[in-house]
Amino acid sequence: MSLTTSYREFNQQLLLKLTLGQQFKQTVKVPDELQIYVPKQIDSAQDLLVLNQYWVLMQQAGYQAQGVPETFQKNIAEIDQIENEKQLDNQLVQILKWVVAQESPFLYQNWVNQIFKLAQQQQQVIPRYLVLKLLPLCRNPVLLAVILPEFVFQGDVTTRVDDTKRVWKYVKQHDAAPLIRQLLKSKNSEWSLLISQLCDQLPNFIHEHIAEFWSQSIQKNHLQSHAESLVTYNMPVTQFEALYQHVKTLEPQNAATVRNNAALGFYLYYQDNALYNEIMALLRACLSYDAQAKKVKFHISLDQDDALNDYGFFDREANLLESRKSLKTAYQSSQVEQAYQAFCESSQGVLYLKRILIQLPLAYWLELFDTWDHLFLLHSQQKEYIWNAFVIRCYQEQRRDLALWFYQHQTKWCEAVTISTGNRLEREWIFSLLDQELATELLLKQLESHYQKQDLEHFWFVFQRAQVLHQDQNISEMAAVLIQHAYETLDLQQDQNKFALLKEQAQCLILEAYPIDFSCLQPLFSISEWKQLIQFNQYKQKIIA
Amino acid sequence: MLLTIQPDQVEHIIPDASSAKSAKKLAKFEAWNNISGSVDQWIWGEIQGSSIYQSAIFLPELKCECSCPSFKRPCKHALALLFVYTEYQDKFVVQSDEQNIPDRVQKWRDKKNKTLEKKENKIDKPIDEEARLKRQLAREKKMDAGIDALQTWLNDVVAIGLGRLRQQQHEKFRDIQSRLVDAQVAGLVIYLDEFSSALYQTNWQMESSFWLAKLQTAIHLWKNRQHLKPELYEEVKQLFGINLPADMWNNISVHKLNLYALGQVTHELVNSRGRYRRQWLWDSQNLRDYLILDFEIPPHSNFGLTLPYQKQLPINVKLYPVISQQRLRLEDNLISFNDLSLTLVEPKGFKNFDKAFTQYANGLKQYPLQLVRFFWLEQLRLVKIGKTIYLVDQDQKMCEIEIKQFVELWFLVGAEPFGAGVEWDGLKLKLISIWQGGHFECL
Description:
Number of helices of chain B: 12
Helix content of chain B: 25-40%
Distance between the termini of chain B: 35 Å
Number of strands of chain A: 3
Oligomer: heterodimer
Shape of chain B: globular
Largest interface: A-B, 55 and 67 residues
Radius of gyration of chain A: 35 Å
Strand order of the largest sheet of chain A: 2-3
Structural class of chain B: alpha+beta
Low-confidence stretches of chain B: none
Number of helices of chain A: 31
Largest sheet of chain B: 6 strands, antiparallel
Radius of gyration of chain B: 25 Å
Strand content of chain A: under 5%
């Protein structure tokens, strides 16, 4: 509120008088309007109180909003609307609103991500007012960049979407520089997450810019850790041809360079380099397959171990340090032969072998085993480890033919729900290669047979991993029947954990599978959850129709 | 058909945060056995705790019973059952045969029915008007003494000056506040609290002169009470802490009003454990506010009904017999709002700030002590100039608002216009709720 000059002076005087009390000796000039209520001359404290009483009342009664300064009027007019954005359909908005109103919205993270994917498919953006509440529920900057309204990226209101903003700039404005700068700056774990999402969803970015990124990383000595996460996340070597071509030109090819560039995987996969032959020669001397004992034999001297290490075979893995120590101890023993034999048969020895094999191209594997069938005959000591390595190798080289062949013959091993040794995640990689027609037929048959046996556990295991089949109507029907049956035979009070598991499966089914009428699953959900799921399902049906 | 209960209605009967937490842990559908309901709106169920406990709830009043030994009422079991009920209502089969109601539930039900009967059969005790008048006069005499003391105190404050008061405020305030409590003018203690906290605000001179004026006005009204309109006198009495006699309500007629519930604000009570809540209602036809004020003083009392937002509600109310005609007493229970249509129409409001301020000024004429009012304003925009946040109306006039989280609000409304509910107390504008497109949010 603004007062006219005479009132302003009076107001200041009055406030001063009130603040200083009797110390303020000046006479307060009472405006005419107030003289009806108080004497012209303010003498007593009582008079002052009454004067203040009426003055405050008068100010309150006359309160008015102030005008917007002209400079800002222009600004307000200039903020244009972004009209060309397609808003997310209301049905899905309602579900998102419900999720963010829940006490633990994190329980519904999967819902949110599925809705985002639908939005992405249809090139729709989520409402602005939901953005801040949904941000913590999605860790995927690439997905976010597509489904967030442009509003989020204007100005510098928030720092919460920095990565997303960089991806957005690349996708919408073809400006890759900020994203590359960030990749160069970011620490190991952040880098891994971001790069794996980029590989997955923006392969073009990788193809176009990974080489540039790599050469800058070399200057900054960040390569080691970055390359490691490439391996950790098991990204297919085939995706990085551009990178290989680039690394090859950087420096003369020798072991140290390769190691420093963390490029062993590339050098071994592509054969047009001197290093390939060098390493293969070394390995041919060390490794052989013994058909009689059904084992891969390895005869590795300490010098050879050093050489392998120089090439970068063993970098940084703690378990391998232990293995290499054991190898050294074996050589220092008084009975070298026996000690070495014991090392080969120990789990540390097998791990050592696995580490070498996992980096070797399948072309070399075939040379080693002579025929692939020998893989199946392997001794139980080595089988688990080598099979795991084989699956990973198939993935890195994207060998769908070998994967199918392996799955056909070792279905049980691939589908083991619980395993005693080894790494289950490694063997699960095989499912991502089973997406061509022959393989899906096989998977479908598998699912049908689990269905016939009412084996929900195995059915679910395969269903979850066989993403290609998620759009198959029959599968949805079989899964719904199996879950419903399991629920009906459940003693709720006894098997609360099982109930939770079933509920999760039913939820996953409705969210991800082909949308059929899922009403037989209703008993697993609360009224409000079911209301949302039904909406979601109907929405998906509408899209398909 | 059992009554539908919304989760937020359950929230309001939770005695404390730890109860909420443990109740939510038990609120798993699969953990409850033998859940059912009765025709007369009881529901019950059993859960395995340290032994098997049976809980039951009388839905229309959300009255909870449980066989567990806890002193807390409602206990975590009953609350959990209620949560389960809100989510799995259709799993509660209504038992039409009385035989199927468990014995313990039957007992609670009988007890409840008896008290209901008692209430209905209660013969109105004749009120001894003479004794009441005598009590009133005695109280007013006490109050006169308190008010005199307050006047002396204010004179004293003005003589020493607000600057000095800031330095010695504690003992200065404590004395007069306890005198007012003794004189049964506890209502003014809150004004003194506001006054003392105003001394420490950035804009302290303005704000404390505001409260000084309010206190002086209160004294002025009390001293001239003989000349006041009866409704104004009643308003002042209530402000000072004289409650309306319970039998008065029988003589007040019920109105049916069509109102929007457009926001609520909860505050801690000063000097006592508990909270009070303002639920703001808006008459979209006549552009005026109504207020439901309720209190929560655990473990004795809880907040009453929470009205559903965003819809125009036909509600039965009694107006407090005071001049401001703002505060309401709700005459409905949950059943009234069980099935409302879902069409959402944005309420009408003022087109600019000055219309709202004019209404405030008119209110002051009637009741000079009027404090907080609620306005619904159409087509506002959010603007940040420097570090200050303003709301701008269609006439390009603006008012500063106090908000802590600008970014959140900015994401909520963007640069587009929105309808908003604001509280105005003569000093500060507070943003309470927002309606933009189909989206409503109470902040």
